[in-house]
């Protein structure tokens, strides 16, 4: 893992190029190799949690696409938060409460 504090070539860059992964942190850019997750076996609970989170993401995207739902969630948005994250948390909390 390499840290780049002020490099014009990768300043603000995040994502993947081939097998290199670029991440942004407050102290600079971190470059590392892509993790190899090919041999990871998920448990039944992990698969269930991943599916639940995918449903939450789908719900949050639908909130962003619907103007009337945006207005409902806009009241809950506070400093430093986004409408997307509020909707995501709402879905996940509501899903837990119903069990």
Number of helices: 3
Q: What's the alpha carbon Rg, rounded to whole Å?
A: 18 Å
What's the shape?
flat
Q: Give a count of the beta strands, DSSP E runs of length 2 or more.
A: 4
Domains (count): 2
- The topology string of helices and strands comes to EEEEHHH
Outline the low-pLDDT stretches. none
Could you tell me how far the N terminus lies from the C terminus, measured between alpha carbons in angstroms?
Answer: 42 Å
For the sheet with most strands, the description reads: 4 strands, antiparallel
The assigned structural class equals alpha+beta
Please give a structural write-up:
- It is a single chain.
- This protein has 99 residues and is an alpha+beta fold.
- It has 2 domains: 2-33, no CATH class; 44-97, no CATH class.
- It has 3 helices and 4 strands; from the N terminus they run ββββααα.
- The chain has a 4-stranded antiparallel sheet, with no helix packed on it.
- Helix 1 (44-65) crosses helix 3.
- The longest helix is centred in the middle third of the chain and has 22 residues, at 44-65.
- The protein starts with a strand and ends with a helix.
Question: What's a concise summary of this model?
Answer:
The protein has 99 residues and is α+β, with helices and mostly antiparallel strands.
Structural key phrases:
3 helices; 99 residues; four-stranded antiparallel beta sheet; single chain; 2 domains; flat; alpha+beta
Layout of helices and strands:
Elements: E1 2-4, E2 15-17, E3 20-25, E4 28-33, H1 44-65, H2 67-74, H3 83-97
Antiparallel strand pairs: 1-4, 2-3, 3-4
């Amino acid at each position: 893992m390499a840290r780049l504090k002020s490099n014009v070539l990768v300043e603000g860059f995040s994502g993947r190029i081939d097998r290199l992964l670029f991440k942004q942190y407050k102290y600079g850019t971190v470059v590392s190799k892509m993790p190899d997750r090919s041999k990871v076996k998920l448990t039944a609970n992990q698969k269930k949690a991943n599916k639940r989170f995918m449903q939450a993401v789908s719900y949050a995207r639908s909130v962003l696409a619907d103007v009337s739902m945006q207005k409902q969630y806009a009241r809950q948005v506070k400093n430093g938060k986004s409408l997307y994250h509020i909707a995501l948390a709402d879905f996940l909390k509501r899903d837990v409460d119903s069990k």
